[in-house]
């Protein structure tokens, strides 16, 4: 599998308060913090909000600049 041993905060569960992992939204390009509702699928989360998720998924491209 593709498990990494490095301590990367982007995929691991937050331990300390104030050190939540962050990601960059694929649609608006803004950074967003880990949320409890994403605890189960944080690895699959790519958008900061439902709004970006809808507009982003319709594009079909991974990256567009
Ligand atoms: Zn967004």
Bound molecules: zinc ion
Shape: globular
Q: Supply the number of helical segments.
A: 1
Content-based structural category: little secondary structure
Spatial separation of the terminal alpha carbons: 31 Å
Q: Return the string of H and E elements.
A: EEH
What Rg do the Cα atoms give? 13 Å
- Beta-strand percentage range: 5-15%
The residue fraction in helices comes out at 10-25%
Give the strand line-up of the largest sheet. 1-2
Low-confidence segments, given as residue ranges, are: none
Mean pLDDT: 80
Q: Could you describe the 3D structure shown?
A:
By secondary structure, the protein is mostly loops. It has a domain at 22-57. The protein contains 1 helix and 2 strands, in the order ββα. It has one helix at residues 50-57; strands at residues 22-24, 31-33. Strands 1-2 form a two-stranded antiparallel ribbon. A hairpin with a 6-residue loop joins strand 1 and strand 2. The chain is globular and about 35 Å long. Zinc ion (ZN) binds at residues 25, 27-28, 30, 47-49, 52.
Short descriptors:
little secondary structure, 2 strands, two-stranded antiparallel sheet, binds zinc ion, 1 helix, 65 residues, globular, 9% strand
């Amino acid at each position: 599998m593709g498990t990494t041993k490095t301590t990367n905060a982007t995929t691991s569960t937050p331990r300390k308060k104030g050190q939540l992992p962050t990601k960059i939204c694929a649609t608006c390009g803004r950074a967003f913090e880990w949320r409890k509702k994403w605890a189960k699928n944080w690895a699959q989360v790519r958008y900061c909000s439902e709004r970006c998720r809808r507009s982003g998924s319709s594009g079909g491209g991974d990256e567009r600049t």
